[in-house]
């Protein structure tokens, strides 16, 4: 017993010296441990169904979003109108044909300096207009339980309706074209918002790149090039922002894609072939994912758009934007929640 007591006493002394303890009034006071200041960041990009062309209410106050919450048996719809403080979003985007050099058609969280960005509690109205929403809402609603007001999750959303890899002019994502949306807008917008996070004393870590795009590339002549064009964009993003990735390795940034609409209300040219390219690309890496939104494939979410043809009306009870293009209110919400499920189920918030 005496030897054991001496051993424990010696161990205690060594701990005081080696473990950073301080002696003060015969009591041991541990040195303060610096609190983890890292915060998770997700970049949201693509075309209109990411930018947000879904109405959450109408001029005659049809409560589409509240109806969606009731249909899905979800609580606390008011937080979507008040703002989800645990998930902060900075948004920048515009409708088809609205992108000009003076950015007058851009709907952004920072109205004074649109490219600079501004984080706000995630809520309705962060889509194409104040009366539109995008998938950021459903995603934030579900992720709010994994963050706090003091240490929120950050969304940087920069998306453009009608954009594609083989588009002409200023709405192309192709890296071999000038101008292109990445080098002219997305890269600087992301960096500006990362700088804003760092200015608060937090260390931003980009966990994932969320993408929803493909309608503009569903032409048979474009589909064979889609995989490589998407991979080139993603590789560029991971390289440029590697220092903000986990372990400062851009390969640790997850890519979360979603299938484009394949239902009966509007049939894109060879949409099934394009969606298969997306699914195949998701299988190329453990950190590539593709949400099965299909109305045809097994296990698909069967997300719907209103009827009425490609640019038909959204109808009086759907909340969709243009008839055959943009998701109904409930399904835009479900899409956002599906992005969140990928993040949660694959532990993308973990260090």
What does this protein structure show overall?
The chain is an alpha/beta fold and 351 residues long. The protein has helices spanning 2-18, 48-51, 64-71, 79-82, 136-143, 181-198, 223-240, 271-282, 329-345, and strands spanning 22-24, 27-29, 38-46, 54-55, 84-94, 107-108, 120-122, 132-133, 153-160, 203-212, 254-258, 288-291. The strands form 3 sheets. Strands 3, 5, 6, 7, 9, 10, 11 and 12 form an 8-stranded mixed sheet that branches.
Taken from the alpha-carbon principal axes, the silhouette is globular
Report the oligomer. Answer: single chain
Rg from alpha-carbon coordinates: 23 Å
Largest sheet: 8 strands, mixed
Q: So how many helices?
A: 9
Number of strands: 12
Mean pLDDT: 88
The residue ranges in which pLDDT falls below 50 over 5 or more consecutive positions are: 1-27
Q: From N to C, what is the helix and strand string?
A: HEEEHEHHEEEEHEHEHEHEH
Distance between the termini: 44 Å
